[in-house]
Specification:
Low-confidence stretches: none
Shape: globular
Largest sheet: 5 strands, mixed
CATH superfamily of the largest domain: Cytochrome P450
Bound molecules: protoporphyrin IX containing FE, 2-acetamido-2-deoxy-beta-D-glucopyranose
Structural class: alpha+beta
């Protein structure tokens, strides 16, 4: 059985390799154009093996920095996931891509992602992206988020009280993941029932595994399970959407309740409501984008705070002052969040060293030249924080954890880019900031902790996570 599967796999890969090789030779103008330096490697496979293995070894940025050293600090070509890529490097490359969105380049996602999210295809068109952009800020901008701060605060407290208090040892990463996921379910679609959330979480796990697997669609492959899980979640979301529509019509709830109500009551220029299926897909995307990234940052923050007692003490001092200024049981408000300056600098430094996303993809909309090289239409482009975040030119002594880098005017423009930039910059940035800070506030006020595995590695899958889930020994902090 396994043998049959393996040989099928091999045959498929060979077949794909040949067809893509032919395709590329025929249609892509490699010859004649003055392409950036770099190696395209094997057909289809290209340099994918190196790209992913560096992530598993714990230094995903090495793929970029090695090639910057070898070819050019500005730009190089490579081939990944069966596509030709040009990596733009440094603050100038980042700035160029961020400011030419929808002019020279547009957002692009790997095929595996498109298969699982049929609508990500649409959101990568200019029109769809603009529509989504108009819609999201309504819910994700600071003014709207202030409304939800209280719920965030209560949910965080409740989570720490039920799942952390009175425990001697906790496994940080899985717990934080379940926390960020329940919070997203609560704030986006008002689902609170723990069983319901747990069922959802199970399918999301299968889905997330599918996205990062090889895009081979046979029954039984992780990719195939991922597509199926996405269908199940979409069906479940459609049911929730239908019920909510009914409740809204019967005036049982206010339209500002959560992002779902927000989407259901919004109309576009011609006065039409969004289609139910589109809403389901958008919510699916938000639930995915909205919890794996923040749980990675919170977990890395817990790791650094365990390793660096001075930084922990400084965060505790700031958060104690805020806690002391409040009545017992009084919820955190916007003013409190604004006071968490040092804590946010710590989170920023965490995201410099361990960004949840290494970078993102674009596609060239037309032929153009950059840094003296031709970028052919249709080629894929990659920008990444890797080319600047650990570069001593922009961050002296880059491996050193130093939150003071973010004091004053902070890093030079386009050198610090964990959320991207330009029109495609992460719309969840403010939401992420609130969630991370509210969690930090409570966790330091309630506990001190030490790592159980002193040299536990981080793996990048591709989102960074501790290899063993970051088990820590907790002590109450009175
Ligand atoms: C610390 C946490 C987070 C980080 C570091 C992060 C980072 C990013 C990055 C680098 C991109 C790609 C930008 C590009 O293509 O240039 C992105 C896109 C996106 N993020 Fe986040 N993100 C985080 C949290 C969130 C949260 C909490 C949400 C939802 C509430 C979210 C929703 C999205 C969406 C919908 C997109 C796609 C936007 C588009 O294509 O126009 N993210 N994020
Ligand atoms: C949190 O604690 C509750 C109550 O003990 C338990 O049912 C739940 O499974 C825990 N959650 C996680 C993610 O461990
Ligand atoms: C408004 O939304 C409807 C339904 O989704 C769509 O068919 C129509 O093209 C949209 N109109 C504009 C102007 O965006």
């Amino acid at each position: 059985m396994e043998l049959l599967f393996l040989s099928l796999l091999l045959l498929t890969i060979l077949f794909l390799a040949f067809s893509v090789h032919f395709f590329t030779l025929k249609y892509k103008r490699i010859n004649g154009a003055h392409l950036p330096p770099g190696r395209l490697g094997w057909p289809v496979i290209g340099e994918s093996v190196e790209f992913f293995s560096m992530g598993r070894k714990g230094s995903p940025e090495k793929f970029i920095t090695d090639r910057m050293n070898k070819y050019s600090t500005e730009i190089f070509k490579t081939s990944l996931l069966g596509e030709y890529f040009i990596a733009f490097c440094g603050p100038i490359g980042n700035k160029f891509l961020f400011s030419n969105e929808n002019k020279l380049v547009a957002s692009w996602w790997p095929r595996s992602v498109e298969k699982i999210f049929p609508s990500s295809l649409q959101t990568s068109t200019i029109e769809e992206s603009k529509k989504l952009r108009k819609l999201l800020p309504g819910f994700l901008k600071p003014e709207a988020l202030q409304q939800y701060l209280g719920i965030m605060d209560l949910t965080t407290r409740r989570h720490l009280e039920t799942n952390w208090t009175n425990k001697e040892v906790v496994m940080v990463y899985p717990l934080v993941k379940s926390y960020t996921f329940s919070l997203a379910c609560r704030l986006f679609i008002s689902i609170e029932d723990p069983d319901h959330v747990a069922t959802f979480a199970k399918y999301f796990h299968v889905l997330a595994t599918g996205i990062i697997s090889m895009a081979i669609n046979f029954p039984g492959t992780p990719f195939n399970s991922g597509i199926k899980a996405a269908e199940i979640i979409r069906e479940a979301l459609l049911k929730i959407i239908k019920k909510r529509k009914k409740d809204l019509l019967e005036n049982m709830i206010s339209p500002t309740q959560d992002i779902l109500s927000h989407m259901l009551t919004m109309t576009n220029e011609s006065g039409q409501f969004m289609k139910e299926m589109d809403i389901a897909d958008k919510i699916l995307g938000l639930l995915i984008g909205g919890h794996d990234t923040t749980s990675s940052v919170i977990t890395s923050t817990m790791k650094y705070l365990a390793e660096l007692p001075k930084v922990y003490d400084e965060v505790l001092k700031e958060q104690r002052e805020i806690a002391a200024s409040k009545e017992p049981g009084e919820l955190l408000n916007w003013e409190d969040i604004k006071k968490m300056k040092y804590s946010w600098n710590v989170a920023c430094e965490v995201m410099r060293l361990v960004p949840p996303l290494q970078g993102a993809f674009r596609e060239a909309l037309i032929d153009f030249t950059y840094a003296g090289f031709s970028i052919p239409k249709g080629w894929k482009i990659y920008w990444s924080g890797s080319s600047t975040h650990k570069n001593p030119k922009y961050f002296p002594d880059p491996e050193q954890f130093d939150p003071s880098r973010f004091e004053g005017t902070g890093p030079a423009p386009y050198t610090y880019v964990p959320f991207g930039g330009g029109p495609r910059m992460c719309p969840g940035k403010e939401y992420a900031r609130l969630e991370i800070l509210v969690f930090m506030h409570h966790v330091v006020n309630m506990f001190k902790w030490e790592k159980i595995i002193p040299d536990e590695k981080m793996i990048f899958n591709p989102i960074p996570e501790p290899a063993k889930g970051l088990p820590v020994r907790l002590k109450p902090n009175h």
